[in-house]
Design a protein that fits this description.
By secondary structure, the protein is an alpha+beta fold. It folds into three domains: 183 residues, no CATH class; 75 residues; 115 residues, CBS-domain, CATH 3.10.580. It contains 13 helices and 13 strands. Strands 1-2-3-6-7 form a five-stranded mixed β-sheet. Strands 4-5 form a two-stranded antiparallel ribbon. It has a two-stranded antiparallel sheet with strand order 8-9.
Length: 414
């Protein structure tokens, strides 16, 4: 369920299909609309569940009406997802101690996601942060089991006491299961980060990530195969696909971040920028796009005033493209960066804002270039091609080593 790192207020705030319900440790807490589906599913599962390994994980055999069973099931589901939130808060609390900014925590269909600006790259820090969540779930599970034993020892046969005993058993069982599942060595689960942290003590962070991701991919494929062989388990297959995709994304993000270390936007940007005027017709803009095969342009009129993309042109009916102007469809709230900004920071901005290009302006606000995601990927490919593969154990094995130009020939003897 919980597998990622991504003040109580009287008002609710929507964001990308999510609703903000409060703030803890200064971290905004959101509930995604998809979470409501899984919440209702768990209410039904808990209400109709029976026993596993001698532990009652549902209220099916509770001597009570269906309404009471669903009431207990609903209360259990809410408490269980509160423990998932505690799992994510444990990750976030440790990350904050290491100076990492947490943008928000979101409860969604696959559990909890803590959105972090970055993951600590030092092995010890990542290990503590990754282990904090499963350890919290394990502690909650053990305490719940102990409380279940205490309540069961009361010897009361009332529906209320028996219901509380079952509730504690469910919370204990699923939190221990959650801790164990998250420690599987596969990204984006905590076990994958623990594995990378362990490997990072023996090789570079990038190589450790690649090996940990390879393990995650194998496990994802095995989960799909198992899900098909045991009678087509769609939930397991969906989780496996999610693990595979997230593992690839983690590898790509780590490789990009590592290779762009020390690179500035100036070294990546395109300074010969094709621009358009706000009075340009949408039809003329589309003709320019066809000629240049570019899908976005800064809009300039005595300085940068906006940005327009191919998706903006699709808002205009085809019979009006010669009448409508770029100023009618352009985005005026433009995110800009400076040439001296570290390339890694620019990549983070793109990810946070979900944009694929950034205009580059100097300190006077003059447009001096533009940079796209493709530009960063090309730079990474070039840097990767120039890199000498480090050999573990040799001096400088944990640093990036690049091919050096051969020394110039000695001067001719006179």
């Amino acid at each position: 369920m919980s597998n990622n790192y991504i003040e109580t207020e009287p008002t609710f705030k929507a964001m990308n299909g999510s609703i903000r319900i409060g703030r803890i440790f200064g971290i905004p807490i959101y509930i995604n609309l998809s979470f409501l589906f899984i919440l209702l599913l768990f209410v039904w599962v808990f209400s109709q569940g029976d026993e596993i390994f001698g532990v009652r994980i549902g209220f099916l055999n509770l001597d009570a009406s269906a309404e009471v069973k669903y009431l207990f099931g609903g209360a259990t589901a809410v408490i269980f997802f509160a423990t998932i939130l505690a799992h994510e808060l444990a990750h976030s609390y440790v990350a904050i101690k290491y100076g990492v900014k947490i943008r928000h925590i979101t409860l969604m269909i696959f559990g909890g996601v803590a959105s972090m600006e970055e993951i600590p790259s030092k092995p010890g820090q990542e290990l503590r942060m990754a282990a904090a969540g499963p350890l919290t779930s394990l502690v909650i599970g053990i305490i719940s089991y102990l409380m279940m034993i205490v309540v069961g020892g009361l010897g009361s046969s009332s529906v209320g006491v028996e219901g509380i005993e079952i509730l504690l058993g469910i919370i204990g069982f699923y939190n221990i299961l959650l801790a164990g599942f998250n420690m599987l060595p596969a990204f984006p689960m905590d076990g994958g980060r623990v594995l990378r942290s362990f490997l990072s003590t023996r090789m570079s962070h990038v190589e450790a990530t690649k090996k940990a991701v390879a393990v995650a991919k194998v496990m994802a494929i095995a989960m799909v195969a198992f899900g098909i062989l045991v009678g087509f388990n769609p939930i397991l297959i969906i989780i496996a696909i999610f693990v595979y995709i997230m593992a690839k994304d983690e590898e790509r993000a780590t490789v990009i971040s590592a290779n762009l270390e020390g690179v500035t936007v100036r070294q990546v940007m395109t300074d010969a920028v094709q621009v358009v005027h706000p009075d340009t017709s949408v039809q003329q803009l589309m003709d320019v796009m066809l000629a240049t095969r570019m899908m976005g342009y800064p809009v300039v009129d005595n300085g940068l005033v906006g940005i327009v993309t191919l998706s903006d042109t699709k808002k205009v009916p085809k019979n009006e493209t010669h009448l409508r102007r770029v100023r009618d469809i352009m985005t005026v709230d433009v995110v800009t960066i400076t040439p001296e900004l570290p390339a890694t920071d620019a990549v983070k901005i793109m990810g946070q804002r979900s944009i694929s290009r950034l205009p580059v302006v100097d300190f006077s606000g003059r447009l001096v270039g533009i940079v796209t995601k493709k530009d960063f990927l090309k730079m990474v490919q070039i840097i990767e091609a120039r890199k000498v593969v480090p050999v573990w154990g040799q001096p400088g094995w944990d640093q990036f080593q690049y091919q050096q130009r051969p020394p110039p020939p000695p001067p001719p003897q006179v």
